[in-house]
Specification:
Layout: H1 3-23, H2 41-48, H3 51-72, H4 79-102, H5 107-115, H6 117-132, H7 142-146
Length: 150
């Protein structure tokens, strides 16, 4: 794996892990995968054994998603917005699906937990955008060529 990809992954994983530690203090800011108290019995037993382990595993998965999105969006015209939209969308879809399928979370807690991921997506998108740097002036914009029919 290229060193640049590893750096992006390390940054994204560290941000996710740090934000898990900060946001898990209150149910309304806790990431969906750490809302263990609302999980079904079998799922709760699996997750409750080690919340730190769950956070580390989720941070690794979220970092992999962030790296794939960042590399795919590297030449996007409005890269930060693309990164934010993709990361926020992944957060809401994956977290919402998990809560619907495996948990019995009160609607207000679920909505707040998902909404608390939006600043996370914004921060991560901003950091990844900065680390990726500026697009080279001579490189074509992938967005511009997407509708060209070729």
């Amino acid at each position: 794996m290229p060193p640049r990809t590893l750096r992006l992954g390390a940054l994204a994983g560290t941000v996710h892990l740090a934000l898990d530690a900060l946001t898990a203090r209150f149910p309304w800011t806790t990431p969906p995968y750490l809302l263990v108290d609302y999980a079904s019995d079998a799922f709760r037993d699996l997750l409750a054994t080690n919340r730190v382990g769950v956070s580390v595993a989720a941070s690794l998965v979220n970092a992999a998603i962030a790296v794939m999105v960042a590399l795919a969006a590297e030449q996007a015209r409005r890269r930060f917005l693309v990164l934010f939209a993709a990361l926020a969308g992944a957060w809401v879809v994956s977290g919402g699906t998990m809560m619907l399928v495996y948990m019995d979370v009160p609607v207000a807690v679920a909505a707040c937990s998902l909404a608390a991921g939006l600043p996370r997506a914004a921060l991560l998108g901003w950091l990844l955008d900065r680390v990726l740097g500026r697009r080279a002036a001579g490189q074509p914009d992938r967005e511009a060529g997407a509708g060209a029919g070729g």
